[in-house]
Amino acid sequence: MAFPEQIDDPPLKHLFDVSEGAGLEQEGVIRLTAGAPGPSLLQACSEVFKQAWARTLEKCNDVNVFQYGIAAGSWEFREELSKFLTESYGESVRRSDLILTCGATHGLQIILNTLLAPGGMIFVENATYMIALDVFKEFPSSSIESVELDANGIDPEDFEKKIMQWKNAKNWITSEEKPFWAMLYCIPAFQNPTGTSLSHTRCLRLIELARKHDVLILCDDVYNLLAHNNPPRRLFAYDRPDVYTFGGHVISNGTFSKILTPGVRIGWLEVPPRIAERLRKSGILRSSGSVNHFMSAVVTSIMEMGLQKQHLELLRSTFKERMLSLMEVLGENLPKSCTFHRSEGGYYIWLELPEGTDAADFCNFSAEHFKATAYAGKYFSKSKTSCMRLAVAYHVKDDLKKAAELICKALHAYLK
Ligand SMILES: Cc1ncc(COP(=O)(O)O)c(C=O)c1O
What we know:
Blueprint: E1 30-32, H1 39-58, H2 75-89, E2 98-101, H3 104-114, E3 116-126, H4 130-137, E4 144-150, E5 153-154, H5 156-167, E6 180-186, H6 200-213, E7 216-220, H7 235-238, E8 250-255, E9 267-270, H8 273-280, H9 283-288, H10 293-304, H11 307-333, E10 339-340, E11 348-352, H12 359-370, E12 372-376, E13 387-391, H13 397-415
Parallel strand pairs: 1-12, 3-4, 3-6, 6-7, 7-8
Antiparallel strand pairs: 2-9, 4-5, 8-9, 10-11, 11-13, 12-13
Bound molecules: pyridoxal-5'-phosphate.
């Protein structure tokens, strides 16, 4: 294999200057692609950090903040996080179940490294978060199978069918260290890209299936707290330890990227005791001396000072307002042959164009002729190529409404 002598390394200041799918503010095209907060929300963050920074440095009489930390994350960080999550979810979160990470992507990688049998099976929702698919490609000995998803989340019957197809297909080599032959990666609340949430009945059924077939379920619970009303109960809370079938099959993978800001690179895993024990022994976590220890101290201050709660409320109400206005425009202007899911939180709206429409071609057409576009379904699924994802996180309300109007006009012209 030939390696290039030099790679393209343009002097970009930030991700959205150019880069794939972005170039968000270029050529006068409004791109509803980014799953990240825009400049006005980042500005508010800078005030939060100024205050917390001062407090963290005051606390630095305790020089240990500059030292390696303990593998699971500092006691103070996990204590504050458990209080914050317990209040925000309205359901108990135990400090001892929490492990500090550098964000949900890192959480996913740790779990793949530590718990899944080599070559273990990975089930994903059809459609799913596109970059998680890239993460899975870095585990090439694993097979990936997609499971159908509808307005109530992942379809348990299809899940069981796929489990049965794969379970006996191979001699899975599990061990005490890597106990799971298979993992389901899912986003149960305000899913990326469809905006759907897993119903109560399906949560119960998924737990039954995970226990029966010994499958680990990793939930990217990254949008739960961006609920327009009460946050949906996370699947982790359904995996109750008070019944004899309990084994601890669910992990809740959380992040400050969506409730504070992505640049901070702080997240957490909420795991059952047997997995907490395993993770605390992880060479990577131990050698890292708790990942991102100093920044976790800053985030601890943010939580202690009540700034996290305040900032989350700003994000939640801003995204709610934006999403409701976007859905209003779509409701009034979309061609009758198109439908969309009414999201009740998170960042995304999933638009279904008439079957057979090439959404990628439409997105290019819309950018070129109507100066507004979004991500085509092909990035999230092999089969949902007639769908597209609209994200509300980055642009301010007026730009979003304008983009939605333009996309609707483009659809009328394209589908004629
Ligand atoms: C479902 C999902 N998981 C993970 C991430 C990335 O999270 P983090 O920034 O914490 O790595 C995203 C970001 O868009 C996401 O949508």
